[in-house]
Amino acid sequence: MPRPTCSRCQRPLGHCLCPLIPNLESRTRVLILQHPSEVGHALNTARLAALGLRNAELRVGERFDDLPQLLAQPDYRACLLFPGDEAVALTGYAPKEKPLLLVVPDGTWRKARKLLHLNPLLAALPRVSLGAVAPSRYRLRKAPEEGALSTIEAIVAALDVLEAPQGFAALLRPFDALIEGQIAAMGEEVFIRNHQR
Question: Residue ranges of the DTW domain (predicted)?
Fold first, then answer.
C-alpha cells in the first residue's frame, strides 16, 4: 500500500517539506516547463521552486500548445534560461526596466533540449545564462559538467542576480532538507561510497 503523501509538496507525510517552503515575492515571473519524466522524481526541485515563489507557474508536458499565450505577457520580457553560445549572462535590472518572464526548462539536459526541439517558440526566445555560480548543493547527482545546477538552484541564482540586493536563498531550505533526508535514508556509508568524489 502506498504511503500517504502531502497533496501540496507531494512528499510522504512524515517527510512533508511545506513548513520549510517560503512564500517569496519577485518582480521576475518564472515559468517552469517540466518534462513529464521529472514529475514522479523523488527530488522534484521544480515543484519546490514553484511552491515557494508567488510569481511562478509550473507546467508539465512535452508540447505546450498554449505557449503563445503564456509568453505574451505585456508587463514582461520573455527569455529562456538555457546555456549556449548565444546566451547573454544575466545582470541586475536597470531602474524602470521591464522585468523578465524567465522560462526555465526542467529535465535532464537531453530532455530539456527535447522540450526546445518540440516547442520552436521556446527555442526562438532570447537566451540568458548564469555567470559564475557556486558549486551545486545537489550532492546526490553527479553534474554532467562544471557549473551544472538543479532547477531550483538555477532559479535562485538567476533571481539573486536580477533582483539584488533581495536574496532568494530561503527557497533552498526545503531543497537542502530533501537532500539531507535522502542521504539519511540511504545511510552515510552508502552515500559516501556512491556519491563522494
Answer: 2-187
Report the C-alpha gap between 51 and 152 in whole angstroms.
Answer: 11
Grid cell digits, residue 181: 533526508
Query: What is the per-residue pLDDT across 28-77, written as a single tens digit (0 to 9) for each?
Result: 999 999 999 988 777 788 999 999 999 999 999 999 999 999 999 999 99
Q: What is the pLDDT of residue 145?
A: 53
Give the residue among 131, 33, 23 at the shortest CA–CA distance from 78.
Answer: 33
Helix (H), strand (E), coil (C) string for 16-37: CCHHHCCCECCCCEEEEEECHH
User: How many domains, the chain?
Assistant: 1
Residue 167 lies in a domain: yes
CA distance 73 to 100: 10
* Domain around 49: 23-195
CA atoms of 148 and 129, how far apart (whole Å):
11
Identify the DSSP state of 52.
H
* Pick from 58, 57, 81, 53: nearest CA to 174: 53
Q: Is residue 12 part of a domain?
A: no
Question: What end-to-end distance do the CA atoms of the chain give, in Å?
Answer: 37
